[in-house]
Amino acid sequence: MKDQPVLQLENISKHFGMTIALADMSITLHPGEVHAIVGENGAGKSTMIKVMTGIYQPSAGTILIGGKPQVISGPQAARDAGIAAIYQEPMVFPDLDVTENIFISDTSAGLLMRPAAQRRRAIELIERIGINLDPDRIASGLTLAEQQVVEIARALSQDVRILIMDEPTASLSAHEAAQLRKIAKTLAAQGVAVVYISHRLEEIFEIADRVTVIRDGAHISTKPIASVTADSMISEMVGREVGNYFAKAPGTVTDEVILQVQNLSLAGVFKDITFDLHKGEILCMAGLVGARRTDVALALFGVTPTATGEVTYKGKPARFRSPREAIDAGVAYVSEDRRKLGLAMPMSIRSNISLVTLDAFLSRFGLLNREKETAVAHSYRERLNIRTQDVDSEVGMLSGGNQQKVMLAKWLNMEPDLLIFDEPTRGIDIGAKAEVHDLIREFAAAGGAVLVISSDLPEVLALGDRILVMREGQQMGILDTSEATQERVMILATGQTALREAV
Amino acid sequence: MKHFTKLTMAATLLLGTAGFATAEGHSVTLETGQEVNMVLLPKFLGILVFDQANEGAQEAHAELENPGELLFIGPTPENSTAGQIEIMTTAATQGQGAVMISNNAGDQIVPSALAAQEAGTRVVTWDSPIPSGEGEDVFIAQVDFGSIGVIMADMAFSILGGEGQMAVLSATPDASNQNAWIAAMQVALEDEKYANIELVDVVYGDDQAEVSYNRALALVDQYPDLGVIMSPTTVGIQAAAKAMQDEGLCEQVKVSGLGLPSEMLSYTLNGCAPEFALWDFRDLGYLTYFTAYGLASGQLTGDIGETFSAGRMGDYTIEEDPGRPGTKRILMGPFTVYTAENVEAAAN
Amino acid sequence: MLARISPQTLRILALLAVVLAVLLFFSTQVPNYLNGRLFNRISSSVAIMALIACGQTLVILTRNIDLSIGSIVGFVAFATGSLITNNPELGPVLLVSYSIILGACFGVVNGLLVAFLRIPSIIVTLATMALFRSSLVEYSDAKSITTGNLPEWLISFPNYKVLTFGTLQLRAGFLVAVLVVIAVHIALTHLRPARKLYAVGSNPEAAEMAGINTKLVVLSAFACAGALAGLAGFMFLARFGTITVVAGLGIELKSVAASVVGGVNIFGGSGTVIGALLGAILVDLIDMSLVRWALVSEFWREAVLGTLILLSVAADAILMRRLIALRVAREKTTKENAP
């Protein structure tokens, strides 16, 4: 810290249309430090990285590199300035080998490659990181951790001065994560400024020199690690009042248990998930990115049949081996990724709604009964208030909130007993959020059981009758809505207190 | 220019009258100056023979003083079939008086041709007819298919000295004119005279130089005693001749068939292709235009037995097509056989 | 042992085995088959396709496709032919340069459209295929290039015998093609910019993040493919002498077939031009042998050819899956054996 800062963001703002992703953000990086950045999901960490790496141009503010104002016009300019980033999902070239991957954007040497020399340098770089890795292996066969090593080596090969690590350990095993933290330390000792973004607070206490908290796109604090505690960090991260736009509605929980899960585990992904779900209940699963909540849902839905443990559904042992079996048993899963797993964007609203329950729309000769399809689509348009001219318009043309309602309609149409809803309100506006919440409550009140996965804390608190908190594949506890606060959920989600409660 | 045209006109009229007088008294002489819009539709654009046909048609267009338009439009090579159908359809909706088509679409053209006829457009085929004859008013046959067969058999006979093996390198397997000619040659070969000539194989070069070239060499490899490759397509014959020349096989295997003098000149002079035959595409375009003009202006009925005067080419009569019973044709004839003696004059 | 050999080398060995198998099979079916002549035929015929498949491979490596390549070959062959017809005194170097530069210009048109307008290459090149062909129709004015108007050195060049062993001849045309393929192969394995071709096809997003100018890479790939097609156009002119507007029609699909049979991944990122050369040889060999196989009639030949191509691609896919499985198994055992 005695040195000249390598990178300074001064009053950087970034807008996307009406949305403000970064507001007046300032941060200073020194060579040789590990600088942790923490914040809730959506606090603006990713946007800040993208500004630093030239992917986004700031709407306002100045970037100083080595004390001089500079415009980072694109990824190449960032590289030239010595800034590199590695992500949870590494960016490697699956068809190339380790050496080729490391030197892919090396522009220093001449036109001709010298494979033998490159291979030697690759070994040197990998040694500098302190890892064992065969430089001849094809990248498609590497583990995530090994791919990250390749990326770090690539950055080192270009004399990186600022290395940004964005949730690098989120998908790694404990051993791999420890190794990666060691790498970060090693690099910092070699004079690199390491920006370390993580949800794992204990990691931050282990390696960070300074920590910056950001919230809602704004800078909250930057302090030496010695002067912060987990509690102070969490309260700064949460920091906001629970918005009153999420009114807490009275629960409709009954005594009848519909789903009972005991010690559900999937090797290397999650372990010992245990809970039960009642008719009319909304159970929310909270946690940070990488908590593996979606994986639990997918296991229940039959996508990963190799999971172990006991699942009792409607009083009978249930082991769904495919989504089809789960659907036939009355389980619906509304995916978090509307684009990839949820909706057929170029198809009409009508045909999206009938997709899961196509058999019900067949006429006697095995042809689709389009009148019936249209009628059903119309009824859902009314019921869920889907705003559209007609049900034949393309789903891709609708707003996020309306798309979400079409998804919901698609699954409600199969009249499920258990609805698993993954991130029901991600990327949709406040008004639509409230509507979706009402629909979920309505479904529960009518006797359905709901499992909601949400990263939106206020939503979890407003919607859930109980809240199951997960962290890195572990069940950290189940809170009753009466005892839950944002702080308590965050403490569990960040692993500060392993508060195990009897179910 | 105008004077010149008028002079030619006068000459033509004179000639026509002369034709009228000498024929059996039924020959129709077409009245000039009728306004008919017509389309000349080749298999595709960019091939010399079709342009020559266009020149002939333009000549007739000027000669008949048609105030209407003669359009020369065609598809691009990679889009021949679909393009022909599209142009035929468009011509019908535009109310063209006649479409003159060298059909490359087989019977796929039939629906659009029928629709054109329905709309009052006359459909005259030339060079390559509609196989079923449906949707076609009349076909202008360049030569008698039967006589093509005999001509090809005779050329093979003379090259082989009366005895030996012959193979055919054709265009595409579904080219209706080539298939008819090959069939005619097979009929001709049944004659006593050709008893010692053996037709060993028929292969197809898709009317592309590279495919034809390879097919010709494959024939030589397959039949060591092969004496002549007969190619009834201008692309095939020169590809085959080039292949024989490149591989130094001209002494052993000769090439013959239908070719353009300008393209075959060097091969005929060096002995790789000593004899080949063709007709004049300018004349074919000229005669086609006269026929289509007569039909579209209502001066010809298009019935069998009808005789008319086609300007400088003399009288022609509509007859039944012996190759396609129930359809009508006008036979242009005759062939020119090219050898080292006359090829240079024709090439220039 | 198996894991020591790289997958690409393995593919090439597998292809060689398939070529041998095809040769053996047809030698039992076709009389007068296995001899020097067969080599001469295939080598002269494949010389042109090898260049085109090589260019096509460069484009496919970047996760694109060039369907206009046949039209480029045709146009260049014609334009070069008319240039030499009108200026018979032009020397070989000038003429070849003209062909290559003209071809590269067409390639640049494709590349600009694909890279900068972000239109999928299949759409762009489908359009330019028709566009280039139509321009040829327009430009040619229905004239053909005929052998008689070409200088002797040009026509005799492809068949110039460099070496002769009995009936087996090594001809200039084939030699040029093989040398070019080897040169491109060395460039792809040893030149820094060439590596980016693989990177862009392998993971375009990562390439962008790695600071690679993906647009420039795609543009260069199309330009190089165009240049190779231009050279092929020159060879086409020299070999066939007669060029009409249909020259090179259908070559684009054959070149894609040759590349894919040669182990080039149609989704980009992996493949070699040596593989593409072998693919071209295999496709040509099967095609020529089928012509001489009495059992298959003219009408079925295309279908049989297609089936055989499909089979070899399927065999390739199965082979690769096996190989990956073997690798994973090997890695597991080495890991377990390690302390």
What can you tell me about this protein's structure?
- The complex is a heterotrimer of chains A (503), B (348) and C (339).
- With 503 residues, chain A is α/β, with parallel strands linked by helices.
- Chain A folds into three domains: 7-238, P-loop containing nucleotide triphosphate hydrolases (Rossmann fold), CATH 3.40.50.300; 249-330 and 417-424 and 436-503, 3-Layer(aba) Sandwich (Rossmann fold), CATH 3.40.50; 338-415, no CATH class.
- Chain A is 32% helix and 24% strand.
- Chain A has 17 helices and 20 strands.
- Chain A has a six-stranded mixed β-sheet with strand order 6-7-8-3-9-10, sandwiched between helices.
- In chain A, helix 4 crosses helix 5 (144-157) and helix 8 (230-238) crosses helix 17 (486-493).
- The longest helix of chain A has 16 residues, at 174-189.
- The two termini of chain A are 49 Å apart.
- The relative contact order of chain A is 0.10.
- Residues 241-245 and 498-503 of chain A have low confidence and may be disordered.
- In chain B, helix 2 (48-63) crosses helix 10.
- Chain B is elongated and about 60 Å long.
- Chain C has 13 helices and two strands; from the N terminus they run H-H-H-H-H-H-E-E-H-H-H-H-H-H-H.
- Chain C has helices at residues 7-29, 36-61, 69-86, 92-116, 121-140, 152-156, 172-190, 192-202, 204-209, 214-240, 251-261, 273-292, 298-337; strands at 161-165, 168-171.
- In chain C, a hairpin with a 2-residue loop joins strand 1 (161-165) and strand 2 (168-171).
- The longest helix of chain C is centred in the C-terminal third of the chain and has 40 residues, at 298-337.
- Chains in contact: A-C, B-C.
- Chains A and C meet through helix 2 of A and helix 8, helix 9 and helix 13 of C.
